[in-house]
C-alpha cells in the first residue's frame, strides 16, 4: 500500500510524514466544524492546490452538500463557492454515480461545466474530484482539489481519498456520540453568507447569483432589470468586485439626474472653450472608468440624441469629448440598469431598438423582495446588525410578532424599503428586542393578510420552517433534528405548507 500511495510523488517520505500529521490532527479533533476545516486545509497543503472542497453525501436526500472549503486567492476573498447549487453540477454527479476519481489536467478541454467553482483572478487549470468511501464501500462524500497552475494531481488521489474518508468517518462518529438535540451543525458557508456580497438563499436569488457567475469573466454588456429598490447597483458592484476589473474604477451615473446637455458633457467630457463657461478640459466618465466599469443607472431616461452617441461608444470603443477634433479609445465595461420596460419603450419609439439589443447582450432580471421567500428575514437581521454597529450599540433581537409582520408585508419598495424600515426600528428599540410597534407597518397590510387564526398560525409555522432550513442549508435531516420532530413529520409539514421538498435549499 505504501508503494501505491507515495511512489508517484517527488518526495514520498516527506509527504508521508505530513500526511500522518494531518491524520493525527483529525483524530484528536472533537468539533465538527473544525474537523471539516482541517480536512480541506490539509488536502490543499498536500496537493499544493489553491482550492479544496469537502462535500458530504446526504443519502436520504440523494444530494451532495458543501460543508467546508479552503480557498486561496479568490475574488472576493473569503467567499464560498462561486454560486449556489453546485451539488447539482454534472461533474460532481458523474463522480458520485461512477464511484471513481476524476482527474483533469487541462480544464479548457473539459466536457463538463466547471462554472460552479469559485471565481479567481486566473482561471482554474486542473482539478481532481475524489469520491470518499466508507467501510461498506458506500460513498460518504466527495473531495475536490483544483489549481489555476498546471499540476499533476493524479499521484495525490489515493492518499487524499483516505484522508477525506477518515475525516468523514470521524465526523459520523462525533455525531453518534452526541445526543441529537446537541449535535453541532457545520457552519453554513454558502447559505446565510454572501455569495458575491449578496444576501439571500431563495430560488430567485440563487438564479441571480448563477447568472452573475456566468457573466463575470466575459466582456458582455449586462442589463439589470427590476423594480425600484431591488438592488441593481449592489449587483453591479458585485459584478465589478468579483470580476477581472476589480482593481480599476467603478463609476456610477444616473441618467435621470442630469439634463441632456450636462449629461453628455459628464459622460464624454469636453475641451476648454467647447461652450460658454468651459474654461478648462473636463474628463468624462468613460475616461474616468477606463479599465474598469461604468454603471449607467436609469438608462431608460437617457435622451434619444444621446442614445445614438452611446451606441457608437459601445460599437467602436471610442469617445469624442465635446469640442475635440478626434476620438480616442476607451476600455470600459458597461452595465446598464433600469426599472422601465425598455421593449415597450422601443415599440413606442422612445428608446432606440439597436441600442436596446446592444445593452441587453446579457440581461439579468432582479427579483422583487416578495418573490424571495425567506430572504426578508435574513436581510432584516443583516441590516439590524449593520445599524447596531453604526450606532455603537449591542446587537438587538427580534420578537416573533415582529418577524411575523415582516413575512406578511409585501414590500413594494423592496430591499431599500426593508433597509430603511429596519434602521428606523433599531433606532426606536430601547430594550434590545425589536417589536411590531418599532416597525410601524401599515395596519391595512396586516388586516389584509390575517383573515383567520389558522392562516396566521400557518404563516408563522412556514416562517419558522424556512428560517430553520436556511440555517441548515436545506438539509431536512438536520432541520428535523433541530426542530425536535421526526423527518417524516417535517416532510409532511413542508408539503402541507407548499414548501417544495425538492427545492428546500432554494426556499431558504
UniProtKB/TrEMBL annotation:
Organism (species): Pseudomonas fluorescens
Cell location: Cytoplasm
Every Sigma-54 factor interaction domain range: 198-427
InterPro entries found in the cross-reference section: AAA+_ATPase (IPR003593), AAA_lid_NorR (IPR058031), GAF-like_dom_sf (IPR029016), Homeodomain-like_sf (IPR009057), HTH_Fis (IPR002197), P-loop_NTPase (IPR027417), Sigma_54_int (IPR002078), Sigma_54_int_dom_ATP-bd_1 (IPR025662)
Protein name, as recorded: Sigma 54-interacting transcriptional regulator
Top-level taxon in the UniProt lineage: Bacteria
Keyword terms, alphabetized: Activator, ATP-binding, Cytoplasm, DNA-binding, Nucleotide-binding, Phosphoprotein, Repressor, Transcription, Transcription regulation, Two-component regulatory system
GO-annotated molecular function: ATP binding; sequence-specific DNA binding
Amino acid at each position: 500500500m505504501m508503494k501505491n500511495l507515495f511512489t508517484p510523488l517527488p518526495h514520498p517520505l516527506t509527504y508521508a510524514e505530513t500526511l500522518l500529521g494531518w491524520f493525527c490532527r483529525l483524530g484528536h479533533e472533537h468539533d465538527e466544524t473544525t474537523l471539516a476545516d482541517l480536512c480541506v486545509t490539509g488536502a490543499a497543503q498536500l496537493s499544493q492546490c489553491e482550492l479544496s472542497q469537502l462535500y458530504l453525501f446526504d443519502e436520504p436526500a440523494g444530494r451532495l452538500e458543501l460543508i467546508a472549503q479552503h480557498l486561496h486567492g479568490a475574488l472576493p476573498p473569503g467567499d464560498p463557492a462561486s454560486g449556489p447549487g453546485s451539488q447539482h453540477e454534472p461533474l460532481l454527479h458523474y463522480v458520485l454515480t461512477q464511484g471513481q476519481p476524476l482527474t483533469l489536467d487541462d480544464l479548457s478541454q473539459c466536457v463538463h461545466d466547471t462554472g460552479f467553482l469559485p471565481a479567481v483572478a486566473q482561471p482554474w487549470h486542473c482539478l481532481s474530484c475524489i469520491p470518499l468511501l466508507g467501510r461498506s464501500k458506500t460513498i460518504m462524500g466527495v473531495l475536490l482539489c483544483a489549481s489555476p497552475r498546471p499540476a499533476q494531481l493524479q499521484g495525490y488521489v489515493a492518499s487524499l481519498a483516505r484522508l477525506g474518508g477518515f475525516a468523514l468517518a470521524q465526523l459520523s462518529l462525533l455525531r453518534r456520540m452526541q445526543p441529537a438535540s446537541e449535535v453541532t451543525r457545520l457552519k453554513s458557508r454558502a447559505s446565510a453568507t454572501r455569495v458575491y456580497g449578496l444576501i439571500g438563499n431563495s430560488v430567485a436569488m440563487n438564479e441571480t447569483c448563477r447568472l452573475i457567475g456566468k457573466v463575470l469573466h466575459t466582456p458582455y454588456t449586462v442589463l439589470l432589470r427590476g423594480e425600484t429598490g431591488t438592488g441593481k447597483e449592489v449587483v453591479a458592484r458585485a459584478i465589478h468586485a468579483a470580476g477581472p476589473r476589480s482593481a480599476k474604477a467603478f463609476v456610477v451615473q444616473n441618467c435621470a439626474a442630469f439634463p441632456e446637455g450636462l449629461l453628455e458633457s459628464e459622460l464624454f467630457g469636453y475641451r476648454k472653450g467647447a461652450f460658454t463657461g468651459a474654461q478648462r478640459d473636463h474628463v468624462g466618465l468613460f475616461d474616468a472608468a477606463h479599465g474598469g466599469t461604468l454603471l449607467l443607472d436609469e438608462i431608460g431616461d437617457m435622451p434619444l440624441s444621446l442614445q445614438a452617441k452611446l451606441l457608437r461608444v459601445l460599437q467602436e470603443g471610442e469617445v469624442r469629448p465635446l469640442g475635440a477634433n478626434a476620438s480616442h479609445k476607451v476600455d470600459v465595461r458597461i452595465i446598464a440598469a433600469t426599472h422601465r420596460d425598455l421593449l415597450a419603450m422601443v415599440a413606442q419609439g422612445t428608446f432606440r431598438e439597436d441600442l436596446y439589443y446592444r445593452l441587453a447582450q446579457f440581461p439579468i432580471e432582479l427579483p422583487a423582495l416578495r418573490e424571495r421567500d425567506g430572504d426578508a428575514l435574513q436581510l432584516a437581521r443583516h441590516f439590524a446588525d449593520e445599524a447596531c454597529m453604526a450606532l455603537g450599540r449591542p446587537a438587538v433581537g427580534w420578537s416573533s410578532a415582529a418577524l411575523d409582520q415582516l413575512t406578511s408585508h409585501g414590500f413594494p419598495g423592496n430591499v431599500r424599503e426593508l433597509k430603511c424600515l429596519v434602521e428606523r426600528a433599531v433606532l426606536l428599540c430601547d430594550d434590545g428586542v425589536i417589536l411590531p410597534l418599532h416597525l410601524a407597518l401599515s395596519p391595512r397590510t396586516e388586516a389584509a393578510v390575517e383573515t383567520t387564526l389558522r392562516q396566521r398560525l400557518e404563516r408563522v409555522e412556514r416562517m419558522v420552517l424556512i428560517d430553520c432550513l436556511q440555517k441548515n442549508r436545506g438539509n431536512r435531516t438536520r432541520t428535523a433534528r433541530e426542530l425536535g420532530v421526526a423527518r417524516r413529520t417535517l416532510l409532511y409539514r413542508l408539503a402541507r405548507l407548499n414548501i417544495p421538498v425538492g427545492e428546500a435549499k432554494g426556499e431558504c
